[in-house]
Write a structure and sequence with these properties.
By secondary structure, the chain is an alpha+beta fold. The chain is built from 17 helices and 26 strands. It starts with a helix and ends in a 7-residue tail after the last helix.
């Protein structure tokens, strides 16, 4: 706060610095345009502030500049400073800007520079300009001003003798210029410690927002009060601090006694308030006003004490993505192996999405339309980001992996499940060890961190399992991925009686995920299969309910859909008949009917104009890749264009078996006599490039 210097000294207030002079002006018509600075306007405001302060410009040792780091603004500002503060100085002034550390704080940019300058005056130290290597060559100057590099910072205060002085500039858009001249605070009498000035006990009051912050505040105060006067400490805590809801009253006759009691409270949070007066006890309980202070022999002064212990919580920029890096040696990936490769489980991606949604300020614990697009293989370090935008959250690396809609509607009541009835409805028991061997036989290997099933029961109506995660892993921010993955593992109880043909089913979609309460380390999971068309041959769908040991529902997954992943042998190219060919793009000359190259291509139906495009010096141009071509596997999506340029000769001279791609590639079977087509579907024959009869 600002006070008249005489009033502050009379009241014994701690003075941080003295504002000697200030000035504000506007460039007016002198600037080139609305955004451009004016060296004349800046020089004028510097000289006016110095005149108000009544100090010699060469006595100012630190210049805190506006310093935006622009090609136009910095040379203009430096030129004005050089004309006013530079020249033939006996001691060069240090020049710096706080913006290289904290950025441009918009309307708070000027006060940030003032705070830096005040701290520099207090400590008699010039802060080093970081990051800084080489000055702008357009700055010029005569040597009277020096950027505050390491050498300047280590040399001490630039102007020896006399009070330390600093100046701060701040310039606004539209040509408004402001400049202040600051001076170090005058010396004040030493604050000697006292024992019991009048033999009385004094009551120090502390308060904070939380009990944790109150204990932290007591600990920091305990290390600062002993060298001070007890009446000054009590007066500062009463009059110089806001009073919050968590409160403490400590009685002491000396600062040493106050220190010991504060340390005792900071250690265990316990305090004996038996000797605290009733009025102070009512204030501490929030039931009465703060009693009036006792009379002192002298007027107490405010002294410097530690400030409020703010919670050191990182608040990300709104809309910024939540970033996490997963490495192959972490249990989250190393203990979750699918088809021989470490894969980040879907449960970990759901936890990342929920954490990003909550961190973005959305008060929700419900995701809908969850889609797992592709697995996250962790063969090396993988950096994932979870970003919330337009009502959706996306978990991605270099490609999207999981997407979901963020629900802003309230979730339904959680309810409770009857564990005894569910145990009776699922009479068959599977041993967890046998179950994890079954998982491994179907392509999913779980390490110790993910072997969380402790009991699995199954029956005609689904499965019931008890899941308990180990104590050591703590990778989840909102839900434990090990507990949630254990809930997904319980789905195996619904397919134990089936022959899956060696296929591995993994999650690929969830209709809705609702988090009703925190996910404990031990839960019960109930799985209920949903009927689907085709009896779930290729897609299985389930409703999942997760409850705490007492049966209270804490999480639900509605419409969890699973599908099989291709086995390694399924990814190989199919074995085609020897006389079946796969088309591939090629570069070929476009030959006109009369010889040479041309931009036209001929065919059975006559010549047609080719699309325009650049030509090479040899008269050929590369053909665009046909949308139906393939060089690996599969079939053409539509027939190739007819004509001799495709087959390299006459279409009738080189008949080839061909099919349209509407059915799988034929491997055997008779052909129609005289026809070059495989018998895949009737209309293909008419469009066959072989153009054979039939």
């Amino acid at each position: 706060m600002l006070r008249r210097l005489a009033d502050a000294l009379a009241d014994g207030d701690p003075v941080r610095a003295v504002l000697r002079g200030s000035a504000v002006n506007n460039d007016g018509a002198r600037k080139m345009d609305y955004h451009a600075p004016s060296p004349e306007g800046q020089e004028a405001v510097l000289r006016e502030a110095l005149a108000v302060a009544g100090v010699d410009p060469h006595s100012v040792g630190l210049l805190e500049t506006h310093g935006t780091g622009t090609h136009l603004g910095d040379p203009v500002e430096f030129a004005a400073l050089e004309r006013v503060y530079g020249g033939d100085r006996p001691h060069p002034a240090a020049v710096g800007s706080v913006k290289s550390v904290v950025g441009h704080l918009n309307t708070a940019a000027g006060i940030a520079g003032v705070v830096k300058a005040v701290l520099a005056l207090e400590h008699g130290t010039v802060p080093r300009q970081v990051p800084f290597d080489t000055p702008n060559r357009a700055l010029g100057g005569t040597g009277g001003l020096r950027i505050a590099d390491a050498d300047v910072a280590e040399a001490g205060w630039p102007v020896p003798g006399g009070p330390r002085r600093a100046a701060v500039s701040s310039f606004g858009i539209g040509g408004t210029n402001a400049h202040v001249v600051l001076e170090q605070a005058p010396a004040r009498p030493a604050e000697a410690a006292d024992g019991v000035p009048d033999g009385g006990r004094r009551w120090a009051v502390l308060s904070a927002h939380t009990e944790t912050a109150l204990r932290e505040l007591a600990g920091t105060l305990a290390g600062a009060v002993e060298p001070l006067s007890l009446p000054d400490v009590v007066h500062t805590l009463r009059e110089g601090r806001s009073h919050r809801r968590a409160r403490l009253v400590v009685g002491a006759t000396t600062t040493g006694e106050l220190r010991d009691k504060l340390r005792e409270f900071a250690a265990d949070g316990r305090f004996d308030d038996g000797d605290v007066p009733d009025a102070y006890r009512a204030w501490a309980a929030g039931e009465g006003p703060l009693p009036a202070a006792d009379d002192e022999q002298r007027t107490p002064r405010r002294v410097r004490l530690p400030g409020y212990p703010f919670a050191r919580v990182r608040r990300p920029r709104p809309g910024a993505a939540l970033v996490r890096t997963v490495r192959p040696d972490e249990p989250l990936a190393a203990d979750h192996v699918v088809a021989g490769r470490p894969v980040l489980p879907a449960a970990a991606q759901l936890d990342l999405a929920l954490t990003a949604v909550r961190r973005d300020g959305t008060d929700t614990a419900r995701l809908t339309d969850v889609a797992f697009h592709r697995p996250v293989e962790v063969t090396g370090a993988v950096t994932l980001s979870a970003a919330v935008a337009d009502g959706a959250v996306t978990v991605a690396s270099d490609v999207p992996h999981t997407e979901a809609r963020v629900s802003v509607t309230g979730s339904e009541a959680a309810g409770r499940i009857d564990l005894a009835a569910l145990r009776a409805a699922h009479p068959d028991v599977a041993e967890p060890a046998d179950l994890y061997r079954w998982f491994a036989a179907h392509g999913v290997s779980y390490g110790p961190a993910f072997q969380v099933l402790r009991e699995l029961r199954h029956g005609e109506e689904g499965a019931l399992a008890r899941v308990e995660a180990p104590e050591t892993p703590a990778d989840g921010d909102t839900v434990s991925p090990y507990v949630l993955d254990g809930a997904l593992q319980t789905v195996a109880g619904c397919v134990l009686r089936e022959d899956l043909g060696g296929e591995t089913f993994i999650p690929f979609a969830v209709d809705a995920l609702t988090l009703h309460a925190g996910l404990p380390q031990e839960v019960w999971v109930h799985i209920r299969p949903l009927p689907l068309a085709g009896r779930g041959r290729r897609v299985r769908k389930y409703d999942v309910t997760v409850a705490d040991p007492d049966g209270h529902v804490v999480l639900t997954l509605t419409g969890l859909a699973l599908r099989p992943v291709p086995r390694p042998e399924d990814t190989a190219a199919p074995e085609l008949p020897a006389d079946v060919h796969l088309f591939a793009p090629a570069t070929a000359p476009l030959t006109a009917a009369g010889g040479g190259t041309s931009g036209r291509t001929g065919g059975p139906g006559g010549a047609e104009e080719a699309p325009p495009g650049p030509s090479s010096s040899s008269g050929t141009r590369p053909s665009t890749t046909p949308p139906w071509s393939s060089t690996t596997r599969g079939t053409p999506r539509r027939p190739p264009p007819p004509g001799p340029n495709w087959s390299g000769g006459s279409a009738r001279a080189r008949p080839r078996p061909w099919w349209c791609g509407r059915s799988p590639p034929p491997r055997a079977g008779p052909r129609t006599p005289g026809c070059a087509c495989w018998p895949c579907c009737g209309p293909c024959c008419a469009r066959s490039p072989a153009a054979a009869p039939g």
